[in-house]
Amino acid sequence: MRVPAQNVLGRLGDGFKVAMGILNNGRLGLAAGSVGAAKQVIRLALAHATSRRQFGRAIAEFGLIKDKIANMIVKTYAAESMVYLTTGLIDKESRIIL
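-> structure tokens emitted (98 positions)
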């Protein structure tokens, strides 16, 4: 495919590198968005667990529910930490290159 010179991104022959860079940025954006969604799900789960009652008490008082919510929080924290680590590495790399 012929591409006009003003529409070329980067140097000639570097199209694959440009495409991979764009995909990697998209993956990171999706990961960050997923962390935000997970945090919202935790808020909703906590609201439900504190308002839903079974056997005369809130289900948030049951050990299994506490364990499930704790696992959600730990996994979300780990995912958020990975996003921060990755963005930090990308930022550090871009400062070295520039």
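The radius of gyration is 22 Å.
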